Recover the amino acids of this structure.
């Protein structure tokens, strides 16, 4: 059966068929570095047990609405807010409802930062408190472009780095962490996977796909949808590359992308109300948003496209040491090109729209993408998933509607303004209210790859050789069990509607998407992996963290834990956990005369114990 991505309900047996769920075996990760035993074994065991039993998911908690405005930034109509291109958001009905507009404490600022990007530093906490949430977001969205993934790969010798190196470099080092965090969220909706795609220029192709998602964070959903549809990586992944029209021998257009662009990337399986709730018929059954006929007809639109490689670029590059030639890498920077003779000219009817027979291919594509973009499902369908990725697994219907309303109109009459949608997710009362901290059903489980990026950014990770050989970390038994751009299928690492079986979350009718990655193997694998990575890093210690600020506090375990609690969890570790970790760090004793090894081990133990604690893993 196909699971409804929005609700977790199984699809009816006669519903639209799904694409094959093929899973490739992950590549081997980096060779394990020597183990470095850490102190505090008893506390670590307790933390591991807590992780295995850790609750999560999210809920409808959070602050109430009520008329609000941005104090000190303008009147109740939102005028006077200085937030760059995000300024119109303050005047929307959703924006006018925001009560929590300024971080009053470091905890509040850190909590916001850990939802908006990967990590929090003292300087960033101070900036958020000084500027206010919306102006800070506007400044981040509008900041100058930074080095692209494609440019970084192009700066290296041929085959010196791969797509894993590229994306880890982007996630760990890019100054515009907010845009990279949002792009990672988009990569879990518009999925392509390096597990299943290869070409002569795989790394360049994936880098360009990643760069496209980064640009999509501050662009429009309609343009993002077009860029995804024509991207070479997606062409390889969901079979639009080389997809041809029907012929007399019985060939029919491949339906893979047509199905998934509706099911996963725009409207979902079932018709939705503006608040994300599923519409039902007179019999109480969910109303499907599309049919198999819609898939078949829409597939005709996506025929005739292939890699854009002019004849002058073919056989234009000789790989180092090779006796053969391949095409240059320029095609990886371009959308796929249309060959009219391979494009279906049959009439295509889908979702209430009609592409007349003999319509030119680019015009047909525009009709299809405009139809998807303007479908009433898109705002609640995409908005709910972005809330899940950044804030809470189980947002209230009102929260979803407020975000969907911003998708429909960003305050300047623009539909699909993604930067405003992301801002609406983060600024909502339900996201910012302190009530969520005390609500057992609010929040989300931190994804393993987010934990690693937070670790790297928080503790000063560097790569001396600038190759960022962190590798594919997909194995759950001795790695993270997750790696960016390495989803096992088009359905992402986990489903938005996933419910852990036989759990308290299931009894409470809550979903917990990230828990689809959690089992006995992955829990132990994560702890063992991090125990090794904290001191040794990757690639024979080329990629390592510095821990400069933490080493300066090594003689004061309480101060060290206070720092980690703020920066890693926004002070969400409870007093009992703080005491447990602090006490564990007191053995063995560390003095000014202790060796660097002893001092460093205390730092590594402190970080590991925090990263194993339920108060860290369940992000609120």
């Amino acid at each position: 059966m196909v699971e409804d991505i929005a609700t977790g309900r199984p699809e009816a047996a006669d519903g639209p068929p799904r694409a094959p769920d093929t899973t490739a075996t992950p590549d081997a990760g980096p060779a394990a570095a020597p183990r470095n035993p850490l102190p505090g074994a008893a506390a670590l065991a307790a933390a591991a047990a807590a992780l295995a039993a850790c609750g999560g998911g999210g809920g409808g908690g959070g602050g109430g609405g009520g008329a609000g405005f941005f104090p000190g930034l303008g009147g109740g109509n939102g005028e006077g807010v200085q937030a760059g291109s995000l300024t119109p958001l303050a005047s929307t009905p959703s924006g006018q409802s925001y009560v929590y507009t300024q971080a009053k404490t470091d905890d509040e600022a850190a909590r916001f930062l850990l939802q908006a990007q990967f990590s929090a530093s003292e300087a960033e906490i101070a900036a958020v408190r000084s500027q206010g949430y919306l102006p800070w977001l506007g400044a981040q969205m509008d900041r100058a472009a930074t080095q692209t993934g494609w440019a970084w790969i192009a700066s290296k010798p041929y085959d010196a780095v791969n797509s894993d190196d590229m994306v880890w470099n982007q996630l760990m080092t890019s100054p515009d962490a907010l845009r990279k965090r949002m792009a990672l969220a988009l990569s879990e909706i518009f999925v392509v996977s390096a597990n299943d795609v290869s070409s002569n220029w795989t790394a360049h192709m994936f880098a360009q796909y990643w760069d496209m998602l980064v640009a999509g964070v501050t662009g429009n959903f309609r343009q993002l949808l077009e860029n995804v549809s024509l991207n070479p990586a997606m062409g390889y992944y969901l079979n639009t590359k080389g997809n041809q029209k029907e012929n007399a021998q019985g060939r029919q257009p491949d339906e893979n992308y047509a199905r998934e662009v509706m099911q996963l990337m725009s409207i979902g399986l079932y018709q939705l109300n503006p608040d994300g709730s599923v519409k039902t018929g007179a019999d109480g059954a969910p109303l499907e948003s599309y049919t198999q006929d819609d898939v078949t007809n829409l597939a005709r639109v996506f025929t005739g496209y292939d890699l854009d490689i002019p004849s002058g670029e073919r056989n234009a590059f000789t790989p180092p040491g090779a006796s053969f030639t391949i095409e240059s890498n320029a095609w990886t920077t371009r959308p796929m090109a249309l060959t009219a003779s391979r494009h279906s000219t049959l009439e295509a009817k889908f979702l209430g729209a009609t592409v007349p027979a003999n319509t030119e291919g680019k015009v047909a594509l525009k009709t299809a993408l405009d139809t998807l973009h303007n479908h009433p499902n898109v705002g609640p369908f995409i908005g709910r998933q972005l809330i899940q990725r950044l804030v809470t697994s189980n947002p209230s219907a009102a929260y979803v509607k407020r975000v969907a309303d911003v998708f429909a109109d960003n305050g300047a009459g623009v539909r699909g303004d993604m930067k405003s949608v992301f801002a609406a997710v983060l600024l909502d009362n339900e996201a910012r209210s302190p009530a969520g901290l005390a609500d057992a059903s609010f929040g989300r489980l931190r994804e393993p790859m987010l934990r690693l990026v937070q670790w790297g950014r928080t503790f000063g990770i560097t790569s001396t050789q600038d190759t960022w050989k962190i590798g594919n970390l997909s194995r759950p038994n001795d790695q993270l069990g997750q790696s960016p751009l390495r989803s096992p299928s088009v359905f992402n690492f986990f489903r938005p509607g996933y419910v852990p079986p036989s759990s308290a979350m299931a009894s409470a009718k809550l979903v917990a998407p990230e828990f689809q990655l959690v089992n006995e193997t992955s829990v132990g694998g994560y702890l063992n992996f991090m125990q090794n990575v904290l001191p040794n890093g990757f690639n024979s210690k080329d990629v390592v963290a510095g821990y400069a600020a933490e080493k300066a506090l090594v003689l004061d375990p309480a101060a060290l834990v206070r720092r980690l609690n703020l920066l890693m969890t926004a002070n969400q570790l409870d007093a009992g956990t703080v005491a447990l970790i602090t006490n564990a760090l007191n053995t063995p004793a560390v003095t000014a005369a202790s060796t660097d090894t002893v001092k460093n081990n205390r730092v590594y133990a402190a970080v590991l114990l925090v990263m194993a604690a339920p108060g860290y893993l369940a992000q609120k």
Remarks:
- The mean pLDDT is 90.
- The longest helix spans residues 520-536.
- Residues 494 and 577 are 29 Å apart (CA to CA).
